Amino acid sequence: ADRLKGKTVIITGASSGIGRSTAMEFARTSPKDLRLILIARRIDKLNELAVHITKQHGPGVKVLPIQLDSSKPEDVRGFVTSLTQDWQHIDVLVNNAGLAKGIARSPDILEDDIRAMLDTNLTGLINMTQAVLKVFLQRGKSGAGDIVNIGSIAGREPYPGGSVYCASKAAVRSYTDALRKELISTRIRVIEIDPGQVETVEFSTVRFGGDKSKADMVYEGCEPLTPQDIAEVVVFTVNRRENVVVADTLIMPNHQAAATVLHKET
Ligand code: NDP
Ligand code: 8X3
């Protein structure tokens, strides 16, 4: 059964990597009657993706690209009410926007990097969740909808040089867990997906401030996951029978056993 039929899905961080692949995977899985709201700061990338999805699937998948910085509470607050009637019936939120900045040890972490990571990975995810929960809770007696939070293996196992990133993802994990408990009397599903090493075009380049050669070294000698691998898991969890909550997942490539335990072929 196509359980996604007629749904409206929001994906944050849809301009690249896991978010972009997730948008395409939703469209591929339910091409007949789906609405995708794609969020990121780079609207040109979102527009390109919208054209690409429309070319592939035609009018069955409606795409709405929105330029929004999810780390800015004041911008997120008005976002749901600013949607036209057709787009306001949100069913799924995929909180994917996030980033790691630098590998500095604690004394040297730049203030801007601390702020970017906490404001995007944690506060932004909370901002978006609050905005969408209003819609979910209005639905029927007990409310319904899906919140999928992209955490990280880094949130389970902190490592040196990743203190703030790891802390932001541990906080996501904790927030997600508390949220699931708060919403226990509703039909809202709260889902956490924790990827291990995924090679996305930009994640490591962003982490190393644009240094592509350093970024490439992260993946040298190992075969990381692809964004598509994670996209498939996201869509799988949302596409389960309504009574099934895939509450928590950890997904790693075959040669990874922990955040810092990777077998590298030399
Ligand atoms: P990318 O760098 O490819 O994508 C990150 C996305 O987040 C981009 O679309 C970016 O768009 C968006 N984004 C960043 N800041 C904001 C903001 N303030 N407001 C709105 N959108 C924003 O990385 P990945 O696809 O790899 O990462 C996606 C998620 O997966 C992140 O949460 C990351 O922490 C997590 N993750 C990644 C892993 C990996 O190894 N790659 C492993 C585990 C988890 P734009 O710049 O246009 O705003
Ligand atoms: C990103 C994965 O291992 O680089 O969340 O922290 S890792």
- What would CATH call the homologous superfamily? NAD(P)-binding Rossmann-like Domain
CATH fold node name:
Rossmann fold
Q: Which stretches of 5+ consecutive residues score pLDDT under 50?
A: none
Give the termini separation: 46 Å
Helix-strand makeup class: alpha/beta
Keywords: NADP, Oxidoreductase
Protein name: Related to ketoreductases
Pfam family, one: adh_short
InterPro entries: NAD(P)-bd_dom_sf, Sc_DH/Rdtase_CS, SDR_fam
Please give a structural write-up.
This protein has 266 residues and is of the alpha/beta class. It has a single domain, classed as NAD(P)-binding Rossmann-like Domain (Rossmann fold, 3-Layer(aba) Sandwich), CATH 3.40.50. 39% of the residues lie in helices and 18% in strands. The chain contains 8 helices and 9 strands. The strands form 2 sheets. The chain has a 7-stranded parallel sheet with strand order 3-2-1-4-5-6-7, with helices on both faces. A two-stranded antiparallel sheet has the order 8-9. Helix 1 packs across helix 8 and helix 4 packs parallel to helix 5. It is globular, with a radius of gyration of 18 Å. The chain starts with 6 loop residues before the first strand and ends with a strand. The model has no long low-confidence stretch (mean pLDDT 96). Bound molecules: NADPH dihydro-nicotinamide-adenine-dinucleotide phosphate and 2-hydroxyethylsulfonic acid. NADPH dihydro-nicotinamide-adenine-dinucleotide phosphate binds next to helix 1, strand 2, helix 4 and helix 6.
Blueprint of the fold:
Layout: E1 7-12, H1 17-29, E2 34-40, H2 43-57, E3 61-67, H3 73-77, E4 92-95, H4 111-137, E5 144-150, H5 163-182, E6 187-195, H6 203-207, H7 212-219, H8 227-238, E7 248-251, E8 256-258, E9 261-262
Parallel strand pairs: 1-2, 1-4, 2-3, 4-5, 5-6, 6-7
Antiparallel strand pairs: 8-9
Helix pairs in contact: 1-8, 4-5
The protein binds NADPH dihydro-nicotinamide-adenine-dinucleotide phosphate (NDP) and 2-hydroxyethylsulfonic acid.
